[in-house]
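EXPERA domain-containing protein
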Amino acid sequence: MGHLLDCDELLHPFRKDGWSPFNLFVQAFDVYGKYDRRYRLTPSTEYGSSIDKAVLAVEVPAGIVDGTLCVFWLNGILNNTWYRNPVQLVVSALHTFGTLVFWGDEVFPGYMSWFKGKGFKWTNTDGPKSIHWWWAFIGLNAVWVVVPLLYCRSALDAMKPALQAAIKN
């Protein structure tokens, strides 16, 4: 359900003076942006966003697709429907993939710089030398890999008997 909230935030360029200082989602977004500058571009892009295009490319579709799937997943949980576990597997895999793309957008440009002999350069974070990189970029985002992978396993375990029975037929 968080992706529905993310989508609302990301479809509107983040402007501190345009949001209430008492909105905890905006404040969390603002603080996170101090350590992952892709969320606080200054100046704004030519298309008027203060969020990096790679982040938008991952998060906006995730907000729409994952958000919609999360509604189906919630209905599946509440009503114990047949599609609960397949949707759980898809949503969880998408979350994991999105986070890997998100990390890759920061790591691979640095790697390519290193590969070309220019040294490893962090483009939007301070890299591993900063404690903020570890808690914000790695720690907070690792939740979007570890928890979904646990849900993937749970969905596969729940579907395993039916899938094995289908193989025998």
